[in-house]
């Protein structure tokens, strides 16, 4: 992974983490998000950088985006 996260969790404000459902974002998903959304690589370049096929990269990114959307919309904690 090219970048390190600066925290272990993101959660809704004002709700104790102990009562929140948690969603785990895996290392490969974090890297896919970083390369595509933060570094602005296209999917082919990002997949090459990760050493995987473009279709595998797309599946990883889609799964990560779903998890993030689920956590935001449904008020869940995101564990990194």
Please characterize this protein's 3D structure.
- By secondary structure, this protein is mostly helical.
- It contains three helices and three strands; from the N terminus they run E-E-H-H-H-E.
- It has a three-stranded mixed beta sheet, with helices on one face.
- Helix 1 (about 25-40) packs antiparallel against helix 2 and helix 1 packs across helix 3 (about 55-75).
- The protein is elongated, with a radius of gyration of 14 Å.
- The protein starts with 8 loop residues before the first strand and ends with a strand.
- The model has no long low-confidence stretch (mean pLDDT about 95).
What's the gist of this structure?
The protein is 51% helix and 10% strand. The chain has helices at 27-38, 43-50, 54-74, and strands spanning 9-10, 22-24, 77-79. It has a 3-stranded mixed β-sheet, covered by helices on one side.
Helix share of residues? 40-55%
Cα Rg: 14 Å
How would you sum up the major sheet? 3 strands, mixed
Beta content: 5-15%
| Number of strand elements | 3
Low-confidence stretches: none
């Amino acid at each position: 992974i090219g970048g390190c996260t600066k925290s272990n969790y993101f959660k809704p404000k004002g709700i104790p983490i102990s009562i929140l459902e948690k969603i785990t974002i895996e290392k490969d998903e974090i890297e896919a998000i970083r390369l595509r959304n933060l570094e602005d690589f296209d999917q082919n370049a990002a997949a090459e950088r990760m050493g995987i096929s473009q279709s595998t990269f797309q599946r990883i990114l889609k799964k990560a985006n779903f998890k993030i959307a689920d956590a935001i919309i449904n008020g869940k904690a995101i564990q990194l």
